[in-house]
Design a protein that fits this description.
Layout: H1 5-11, E1 25-29, H2 39-45, E2 55-59, E3 69-74, H3 82-96, E4 101-105, H4 109-114, E5 117-120, H5 122-126, H6 147-159, E6 162-169, H7 171-186, E7 192-197, H8 215-236, E8 240-245, H9 252-261, E9 265-266, H10 269-274, H11 279-295, E10 301-306, H12 309-312, H13 314-334, H14 339-349, H15 352-360, H16 363-369, H17 386-403, E11 413-418, H18 420-423, H19 429-447, E12 453-458, E13 468-473, E14 478-483, E15 486-491, H20 501-515, H21 531-534, H22 539-545
Parallel strand pairs: 3-4, 3-6, 6-7, 7-12, 8-10, 8-11, 9-10
Antiparallel strand pairs: 1-2, 2-13, 4-5, 12-13, 14-15
């Protein structure tokens, strides 16, 4: 594989490990745990993997030496650092016993079901050290939730003598890992299942998981791009830039980028929901900022919009929930209708309030809300041009205000959506170290006989040697939610905490940022240089862990 100059240099970077994972390891077990909600129901569904203790790794004098073959799967969307999780896992199982072997299942969970795999060798993994992307083995969005899938997977696991499977993914993928761990434990198959917390959206975190991997790199990548746009904005002084960033279920990326770049406006979906704002309320607030800046001769600015905003507007959220149930139950009779017939079908089958909301939406947005769902039953909100919708509505309102003498400026908008630009970036030093440590933690959970656990690393605002590694039972993070028309056990997503320090930092500054031009240009991710530049964690993590 041909390498760039950067990749050649990055391959030589040796990720740092917590002190407890640098040599022989033993575990310290805490008290029994319970799920975050719906305890009786989660316990009933997961009798073999419920209530296990949180574990922490400590230094030991005795190396495990356990012989084991391990399988690994990359599941869901790409996130910077995934390769380092695999490499940390590889290096650690080889350290435990050089005879241990690692197999990668290709293109996500479907590789397990379809028996598509490769053995990961030293020569192969060395090509991917500290690189972005998931191209070592590929990824996919197949859900592991059916008995026949579990049984097909078991066939190849037994054929390869694999005693443990590591699933690297987000909340849905780790929920699937928990279901699989329970199934294999109930059948006494002798197969352990371990999860690793991945999602650039940042919504897989809690008291045990300080951050999901990829968030650090992705937000630094987006912030570089936003900073570049801000500098252009402040140079040309004639455009309002509406910038949509990833984050379907939470606004962590938008918030972090705002803290790094100080745009004029950053919309936080969770605040919109808490204040019960309508789409018109949001547009009114935006227009107030645009109009004020115009009075100061500033017909330019930047607005950060979270990808999932539409779902958080309460009236539209209620509509989407009913649409999900409607399409789950009657999708087959709906899908073959023409556009107009589909619209009439939906309006006639919705409750009065939701039908009224649907009827008032712009046609293209209404159509997107009623299109096919993703594999998890969610509206594909990345397809909805929320940034364009907001700027169009602002333009219409500003025209009305101009006719009434309330607005004296000129409004011209440009649009951006940052998604794929950050998913496969070369991991920052933080993510390179964090992911390598997660892989090593997964290996030690396997060596110590654990299943149904997620690898974790804590104390991450300190130097890597002081990080605390261990594992948390996946059932501890679960509750019951309605998904795709049915109640299911899932890992609870972490939303932006409106009482948390990162959001309060935004609130304390946003009036000033909206009126003045306070842009910060973070620049590119640095891999070499002073530690305060190269190894700094996100603003979110600094504020939360302060």
């Amino acid at each position: 594989m041909e390498k760039s100059a950067l990749q050649v240099e990055r391959a030589a970077y040796q990720p740092k490990l917590p002190k407890a994972l640098q040599g022989a390891v033993k575990i310290k077990e805490g008290a029994a745990t319970q799920s975050v909600a719906d305890q009786e129901e989660i316990k009933r569904l997961f009798p073999n993997t419920y209530g296990m203790p949180v574990v922490e790794f400590e230094e030991s004098d005795i190396m495990s030496g356990r012989q084991m073959n391990v399988g690994v799967i990359l599941s869901g969307g790409q996130a910077p650092g995934g390769h380092n999780v695999i490499i940390g896992l590889f290096d650690q199982i080889k350290k435990i016993n050089p005879a241990n072997r690692l197999y990668g299942f290709l293109m996500g969970p479907s590789g397990l079901v379809d028996h598509e795999y490769i053995e990961l060798t030293e020569e192969l993994v060395n090509d991917y050290r500290n690189t972005g992307g998931f191209d070592m083995i590929g990824s996919g969005r197949t859900k592991l939730e059916k008995t026949e899938q579990f049984e097909k997977g078991l066939e190849i696991l037994r054929e390869l003598n694999i005693s443990a499977l590591v699933i690297i993914g987000g909340d849905d993928s780790n929920t699937n890992a928990c279901v699989l761990a329970e199934y294999y434990a109930a059948k006494n198959c002798g197969v352990q299942v371990i999860g690793c917390p991945k999602t650039i959206d940042g919504d897989l975190k809690n008291a045990q998981i300080e951050t999901s991997f990829g968030f650090d790199t992705a937000t630094k990548t987006y912030s570089e791009l936003i900073g570049n746009i801000e500098r252009d904005c402040n140079s040309a002084r004639k455009y309002w830039h509406f910038i949509k960033v990833m984050g379907r279920s939470a606004s962590h990326i938008a918030l972090e980028c705002a803290l790094q770049c100080q745009p004029n406006v950053c919309i936080i979906s969770e605040e919109v929901e808490a204040k019960d704002l309508t789409l018109n309320d949001i547009v009114e607030e935006l227009c107030n900022v645009i109009a004020y800046r115009a009075t100061q001769g500033k017909n330019f600015g930047t607005v950060i919009v979270p990808e999932g905003l539409i779902e958080f507007i309460p009236a539209i959220g209620r509509l989407i929930q009913e649409l999900n149930d409607l399409l789950a139950a009657h999708g087959s009779e709906y899908k073959d209708l023409g556009k107009e017939e589909q619209r009439e079908y939906i309006i006639s089958h919705l409750s009065e309030a939701n039908a009224a909301t649907f009827a008032t939406l712009p046609l293209e947005v209404a159509r997107q809300l009623s299109l096919d769902r993703d594999p998890h039953g969610n509206v594909q909100v990345s397809l909805i041009e929320t940034e364009k919708l907001l700027s169009d509505m602002c333009a219409a309102k500003l025209d009305k205000w101009k006719a009434e003498g309330k607005y004296v400026g000129k409004f011209a908008a440009l649009h951006h959506f940052f998604g794929y630009e950050g998913r496969c970036a070369a991991p920052s030093n933080f993510d390179a170290d964090y992911c390598y440590s997660l892989g090593a933690s997964a290996a030690q959970l396997i060596a110590n006989g654990k299943t149904g656990y997620m690898a974790i690393v804590k104390n991450t605002t300190k130097p890597a040697e002081e990080w605390v590694a261990g594992g948390v039972p996946i059932t501890m993070m679960m509750n019951i939610e309605r998904r795709n028309g049915a109640l299911k056990p899932v890992i609870r997503k972490a939303l932006v905490d409106l009482d948390g320090k990162p959001f309060k930092e935004l609130v304390a500054n946003r009036d000033k940022w909206s009126k003045e031009t306070c842009y910060i240009y973070p620049g590119p991710i640095q891999y070499w240089g002073p530690s305060e530049v190269c190894d700094r964690p996100t603003k979110t993590l600094e504020l939360e862990q302060a």
